[in-house]
Write a structure and sequence with these properties.
This protein has 13 helices and 11 strands. It has helices at 2-21, 37-41, 59-73, 122-132, 160-173, 186-198, 225-240, 244-247, 253-257, 262-268, 278-285, 318-321, 349-362; strands at 27-30, 80-85, 91-97, 107-111, 135-140, 179-184, 204-210, 298-303, 327-332, 341-342, 347-348. β6, α6 (186-198) and β7 (204-210) form a beta-alpha-beta unit. By secondary structure, the chain is an alpha/beta fold. It has one domain (22-224, 288-362): Rossmann fold (3-Layer(aba) Sandwich).
Length: 364
């Protein structure tokens, strides 16, 4: 009797602690008869509660911990960084980790965040290598990490033509390596746009999109005002001010510099992205226009408390996604923006999910 009472008290205490943490089972949206169901059934994480690190239950604290502490303290030395000249003379790069693994080792290709650099992406690079044992190729977009900009062109969401050239470089070095893809935040826009444009014509075996904003034409409207203002200042700092001579002939420069938030910036910078008007820019980069043409397995992860890529952005696409055989969306109550720390040691729940998903796909 005593043991029974003790167990009930223990269970009640555990449930109460989970309630305080906001620990819940992930929600999964997918086609119940779809091809991706077999993969979902083999992922134990999706059947267990996601328990955020106890002191990171507030979405803002969670995000600031990720952005201001973890990004600054993770130590990782890349094996090499290849600077690539694109067909139009523009410069991109690929940062490698695990470069000297056997040639037939799979490679995870990462598409980074809106101001991503090799330094800011170290934790995800390290975790994916650690969990899978695979090679990591971080594809750097134009203007990132202080790359030279001989051609006056940048894009918040990248360029699918640049990505194709980067993939050609990766495949030329490792023709026997299976490729898997991860997009993080703004990098999901590039990933999903590429997958939708290519359909089945892609070397990727499977892909994972972490914290997408979905429709790029409305996503920035839902960014928390503090982060929208802060990130706009970062765009000026990294992509405008260091390249003043590059942008001197751009007629819209003053309008871009007058932007006070991400929505205003995105609506004015289209000329810097190489387009004549905003409508043409949107038709060329918005992943939503080609989303339903994705043919490979794609898992998407969003946190319901994300202050940057709001969960509201998902709502119009829940039904279409559940009609697609190869796509699943996972949402967690907590996780903030691209953080998803769990346990007392603050390890990444998301990186573990990505790795297990890829390993299951690879071992089918």
């Amino acid at each position: 009797m005593g043991i029974s009472v003790f167990n009930k008290i223990k269970d009640f205490g555990s449930e109460l602690f989970d309630l305080v943490l906001g620990a819940e089972h992930p929600k999964v949206y997918y086609h119940p008869q779809g091809k991706i169901k077999d993969i979902l059934d083999k992922l134990p994480q999706l059947k267990q509660k996601y328990r955020p690190t106890p002191w990171l239950t507030n979405s803002h604290v969670h995000l600031l911990y990720f952005d201001l502490i973890r990004k600054q303290t993770i130590k990782l030395a890349y094996d090499r960084i290849d600077q690539l000249t694109m067909s139009d003379g523009g410069i991109t790069a690929i940062a490698w980790y695990g470069y000297n693994l056997p040639p037939d080792t799979p490679t995870v290709v990462i598409m980074h965040t809106i101001t991503g650099t090799p330094e800011s992406m170290r934790e995800l690079v390290r975790d994916l290598n650690r969990y899978t044992g695979w090679r990591i190729a971080l594809c750097l977009r134009r203007g990132h990490a202080g790359l030279p900009m001989p051609v006056p062109q940048i894009s918040l969401f990248g360029s699918t033509s640049d990505l194709k050239e980067q993939l050609n470089h990766i495949q030329s070095l490792f023709p026997a390596s299976d490729l898997y893809a991860v997009g993080s935040s703004a990098g999901t826009g590039l990933l999903v746009r590429y997958l939708g444009e290519q359909g089945e014509d892609t070397p990727f075996k499977a892909a994972f999109a972490m914290c997408p904003g979905y429709n790029t034409e409305i996503g920035f409207k839902n960014v928390h005002p503090f982060y929208s203002k802060m990130m706009t200042k970062k765009l000026f700092k990294y992509f405008i001010y260091p390249y003043q001579n590059t942008w001197s002939q751009i007629a819209s420069l003053e309008r871009v510099l007058s932007a006070t938030n991400l929505e205003e910036f995105e609506k004015e910078y289209f000329e810097m992205a190489g387009f004549e008007d905003y409508e043409t820019y949107c038709k060329s980069i918005n992943p939503i226009y080609v989303f339903e043409n994705i043919k490979i397995p794609l898992m998407i992860l969003n946190a319901e408390d994300d202050p940057v890529c709001s969960i509201k952005n998902l709502e119009p696409y829940k039904e279409p996604i559940q009609q697609m055989s190869n796509v699943a969306v996972v949402t967690t109550k907590k996780g903030s923006h691209c953080a998803f720390y769990e346990g007392w040691r603050s390890t990444s729940w998301a990186a573990r999910l990505m790795a297990d998903y890829f390993l299951i796909e690879h071992n089918k």
